[in-house]
Amino acid sequence: MSSPAPIEPDRTTTAASSRVSRRWSDLSYDLLLSIFSRLSGVDLIVGVCTVCSPWRAAARHPQFWRILDLSDWDSIAARIRDSVTFDEFFRHVIAFVSDTELIERVCLPSVANGQDLILVASSLPELSYLSFPNPHANQAEVCIALRKFSYLQGLTINVSLISTDTLSCLEKFPAFSELKLLSEEESSLKIIIVAHMYMCLQRLRKLEMPNVIIPTIAFVWLIEGLEKLEYLDISGNDLLGVEKEVMEKTKRLKVFIC
């Protein structure tokens, strides 16, 4: 009795299986960079870096860390298995990033307090832009943190934390040009604060104060005194009492929202 003919392997199936079984860690470094560029820093920290060593190495590339957006803390906390505080998570991020000097902008969550801000300033003294929305932070701690920065160019902060001391801290930065004041509801800014703003922030180019009510004379100071100002948002203010000549001067602005 003759032996059965040997069964030839299905080369198509074998090739397909080979392609399917290729390890994710074998993806090229450049391809990983291209893919990861579509993810957020939080995605890289919480998910990508835990896959394998090649993915972790690619996720540390400086191009992904120019902007560190931690503003949605509820979403971040929900993705972390172990319960960690904000400062613990921030320390983990800083330890992970290969070159922290390349981080240009940090957006903090509202849960970040004054001590957290001091930690950020101590870790990233060369930071250019900062968003710190917590309205209940200790003002003295905010000033301590601001003094630790060396080259701040822009700041987003709650209007409740703006004081003569805060503005004096900002005055020392030679390239400081953007200020945004946050207000959860309509609030007012004392005339002495606006006067100090006018004196300390002569290099200001962009000023956003939506829902922050200022006296008419303070508006005049801002328009006439901040000569480099290009963008002004004072939406929510009633400017009916402002003289026509002053309103004419707003035409020099590239953007004026009222």
- Which geometry do the CA atoms define? elongated
**Average of the residue pLDDT scores:** 83
Number of strands: 10
> Which stretches are poorly predicted, pLDDT < 50 over at least 5 residues?
3-9, 13-18
Your description of this structure?
The protein contains 12 helices and 10 strands. With 258 residues, it is of the alpha/beta class. The strands form 2 sheets. An 8-stranded parallel beta sheet has the order 1-2-3-4-5-7-9-10, with no helix packed on it. Strand 4, helix 9 and strand 5 form a beta-alpha-beta unit.
What brief labels describe this structure?
12 helices; 258 residues; single chain
Short description:
By secondary structure, the chain is an alpha/beta fold. It has twelve helices and ten strands.
Chain-wise SSE layout:
Layout: H1 11-20, H2 29-36, H3 41-46, H4 53-59, E1 67-69, H5 73-79, H6 86-96, E2 105-107, H7 114-123, E3 129-132, H8 139-148, E4 154-158, H9 164-171, E5 178-182, E6 187-188, H10 191-200, E7 206-208, E8 212-213, H11 216-225, E9 231-233, H12 244-249, E10 255-257
Helix pairs in contact: 2-4, 6-7, 7-8, 8-9, 9-10, 10-11
